[in-house]
Design a protein that fits this description.
Helices cover about 90% and strands about 0% of the residues. The protein has about 60 residues and is mainly α. The N and C termini lie far apart (about 75 Å).
């Protein structure tokens, strides 16, 4: 049981050493993720559309 308490004590000490990001950093990162996800979705959608049209052309 003493090891469990030691674990939590050490975990608390380690969490005090963490440098947490600022609110602005978090929002900036969120914007990058949303924009890059949108761009990748559009590119993959266009590729899918192109391959679908190519497949239909070949199968005629």
């Amino acid at each position: 049981m003493a090891k469990v308490f030691q674990f939590f004590k050490e975990s608390k000490a380690e969490l005090k050493k963490v440098v947490w990001p600022t609110k602005e950093d978090v929002f900036s990162s969120i914007k990058v993720v949303i924009i890059s996800t949108f761009v990748v979705a559009v590119v993959l959608g266009l590729l899918d559309l192109g391959f679908t049209q190519l497949f239909r052309l070949v199968m005629r």
